[in-house]
Structures
1.
Amino acid sequence: MKCRVCRGPAVIDLPRHNANFCAAHFTKFCRDQVERAISEFDMLSPGDRVLVAVSGGKDSLAVWHLLRELGYEADGLHVHLGIGGYSSASARMARAHAEALGARLVEVDLREDYGFDVPTGAEAARRTPCSACGLSKRHVFDRAAVDGGYDALATGHNLDDEAAVLFGNVLRWQMDYLARQHPVLPARAGLPRKVKPLVRLGERETAAYCLVSGIDYLVEECPMSAGNKHLAYKAALNDLEVESPGTKANFYLSFLRQASPLLEPVGESGREGLGRCERCGAPSPSATCAFCRLRERAATAEPVTLRARPAPGAGPTTEDPT
Ligand code: SF4
Ligand code: ZN
Ligand code: ZN
């Protein structure tokens, strides 16, 4: 197996691109894909200050590394979710990577800063763990990016994540979710610009990028992810990809090119009339935002250490496992 560029020994084959690469040309390939996504979707401008949501997994560490390689002033943001040993290990990975990059890591602890953690919040609000977690992360990410004066908030959603979310949204024809499924969402009052620079890279590629770049990431899956549909959609798409390389990229990128523009009116109608939460000031369609309601219910609840298995079918739809 030889590198397509230099004919040296290849370390990875990419059937979707009909190519093999050596380590050096593979890292260049990854940088090129991220640069291409940034420019194609107008995500960032040179010199932008970016806050990267960092879980400690391969995707968030890779996107942080790649953005800094590309010259962006990128700080990390890690949210302690309180999911037992998984959360402690996540924090260790995020800190170690910040140190290796010589970058700033902002840390927010749900329990210390907001009085609850994900297992307790989920139980108290009768939400699935992924739903309570997604809601909390969104709130904390938005607040940290706006308060810190960052130009954009970046997340590590990759091509596999986005294709799986698209698959789930199409299966249920969730038009409002489809209208919002875009790799860049513009800033608006109280919300930062949100970008997903990894949408042209699959998770096998981000894992390989970490490996060849010497980035140590958390391999362990979140114990609360078991049974969520997002994973089942990924598995189904992986089967199709084996039969026909390029299926995932074509499904997702063609959606963005061909269907997404047609959905703009749906997305705009969903954005109308957003007021402010009277407690925290976050944009909200109701007087008290969903995060403040979750926080209120969780504040008086008995702390739950961990609930390992959400109900079958639970899990993020527009969320990712950041
Ligand atoms: Fe949160 Fe992801 Fe774990 Fe769900 S799988 S609880 S979204 S970290
Ligand atoms: Zn090469
Ligand atoms: Zn609020």
2.
Amino acid sequence: MRRLVRETRWSVSDLILPMFVQEGLHNKEEIESMPGVFHYGLDEFRRAVGEVSKAGIPGILLFGVPEHKDDLCSTAYHEHGIVQEAVRAAKQENPELLVMTDVCLCQYNPTGHCGLVRDGIVLNDESLILLAKTAVSHAQAGADVVAPSDMMDGRVAAIRQALDVSEYQDVVLLSYAVKYASAFYGPFREAAHSAPSFGDRRSYQMDSANIREALREAASDIEEGADMLMVKPALAYLDVTRAVKESFDIPVATYNVSGEYSMVKAAASKGWIDERKIVEEMLTGFKRAGADFVFTYHALEAAYWDHN
Ligand code: PBG
């Protein structure tokens, strides 16, 4: 009876797995604060893509950890950068897998900020050129979806325009439109080696108290050409996902971020919670709030629990 009258369902078709590829790594290394999540060298990454495909997960989101960082973030848009190589490897392994790439500069420059920095200031407009170059290089490698997470103003328009003039009109732009400055990203910064070396991200990421601003960010990104939107983090922002869903008619995703994952793993490892039930309840909550799909590090395990 409960199955028949259930109002919300999630399935493996709703899940995207974020993955970290590391340049120069030969094997894979588990990320300490995120048990079950790995830095992959390219060969291991190929193998993992096979596993993801077998589990029926529709897509992945790629983050790169480069060997070299410089002020101009040159490894972010290099033809043979780690993300570009990983996109090619994933497509070779499974051309049907949807390959999304995170577009940002924070892993690629020594300051750890999401844009170019001069004299301690993040330069919004000058960053746009590099972000657009990065997105085009991902498209060139074969990415289906580019997902800017930097939060510079105007980056959706800059990226869309650069893709279009480079003949990548069919590449989809998923904007991290509503990205809050959040302590829930803590473990990710260890994973991506991208913690800011000074200050914080509050000059470009949003204040967690604001929801009208979220709708303004979403509206301007749609105006600039975003095809899909993201709300991030997920758990503490379900009302924002609901509001975005009701206000706009393009797909909306939510990102169940690193800190949310680590909290579940830590408590489960102590036997304090039932991991599977907790994750299933969270996924149901994301869908009930209106998310069309979910970025989650739990994707591989959850794919096998899909029983709805
Ligand atoms: C980088 C980026 C971050 C995340 C995705 N892209 C970190 C940040 O903005 O500090 C967070 C992902 C997670 O915590 O799982 N711009």
